[in-house]
Design a protein that fits this description.
The protein is of the alpha/beta class and about 450 residues long. The radius of gyration is 21 Å and the shape is globular. The protein binds phosphoenolpyruvate (PEP) and manganese (II) ion (MN). The site of phosphoenolpyruvate has 10 residues, from loops.
Amino acid sequence: MSLSAVPTWPNLPAVQQPTWPDLEELARVRATLATYPPLVFAGECDILRERLAEVARGEGFVLMGGDCAETFASATADSIRDRIKTILQMAAVLTYGASTPVVKLGRMAGQYAKPRSKDTEVRDGVELPAYRGDMVNDFAFTTAARAPDPQRLLRAYNASAATLNLVRAFTQGGFADLRHVHEWNRGFIRTAANSRYERMAHDIDKAMRFMQACGANFEAMRRVDVWSSHEALLLDYEQPLTRVDSRTGQLYATSGHFLWVGERTRGADDAHVDFVSRVRNPVGVKIGPTATPADLARLAERIDPDREPGRLTFIVRMGASRVRASLPALLEGARREGVHAAWICDPMHGNTFESGSGYKTRRFDDIVDEARGFFEVHRAVGTHPGGIHVELTGNDVTECLGGLSALHDDDLQRRYETLCDPRLNHQQSLELAFVVAEMLADA
Ligand code: PEP
Ligand code: MN
């Protein structure tokens, strides 16, 4: 891939961008980023687009998962490994439970910038800039920590490179081979979901030994693809990392394989949609409860005028109470317009609320209910429920309520570690995978 200069970007309205204090320093950082090697390659993005095209045609299922906000502090070997193991376990549950190929996407190696509902945060009468992710500022509530710092763009690049390097090592080096299905469960605390997983792993093992005895060739299974994805929010990061592919002359975002535009930045005439419309990567748009069929048609016109399956994914995040009423018209409208999007359910972002004890949380039951509603609507309309998008961690955190261990409001303070939205812990993630596998098997 060449490093040839990218055309200048049009000056369109871009919401949710930080107010950088020093624009000259920002320009220097952008120039530096533009010299850095790509994190992902055009050919990889093309393969992922083909995988997603299969999903759009109803021949696969997407599992997207990872932190709401990655942090530099948690870009450690243990934390990355545990997230990868959790994703691999969930994927095994889905693949085995529903006999469906699963496309695995980490919300990883670039998920360092966050949109916020307010520009500032007030604590005890003190007002400071809101935390916008480690790519922009620090979470600590001091004037110095909250000042946006362009140098953080370079740190985010380095942390993403290190993360992706480890993900590639785990998944291409044999660790993600289904024959290691038991090993992915090691090191996690014993839970009911875990034990259920062990039983399934035992069945998979048996099936694999049977296949081996029959002379099946497992070489192809040694390497597993886990693709990187994040919200393309901070244009000062994404634009300098965009490159012209020397083979085809086309533009690719090289910060991650799959990029999505968030619910707050999806204005069809705004800078974020314009950005993803110019790159060849497969891209997603988050779709909240206020979206209309006309909005989706305009997004498709901008991003996917050629109606190319795999190019565009809609990530639906309606809330459990709204998905059954709001989604049918969108699916039908998209079908009328000939839009071949893959449809993924994000059952997290429409179900966030503040608990009695003051923590931002989500109920496991609401998450399951939204996923169920998503499957029901697809079945009724005759379209394919193409995947699930979740915020998760491999740790035993206490951020979401409910699940088999019945986490209660009083438990949240025990291990509430997220800097942004509440994540499913390891057991809740596995549990969700089992429930969704059943929905998928019935779909
Ligand atoms: C997110 O995915 O963390 C997020 C902010 O989502 P949304 O754009 O759907 O609100
Ligand atoms: Mn989030």
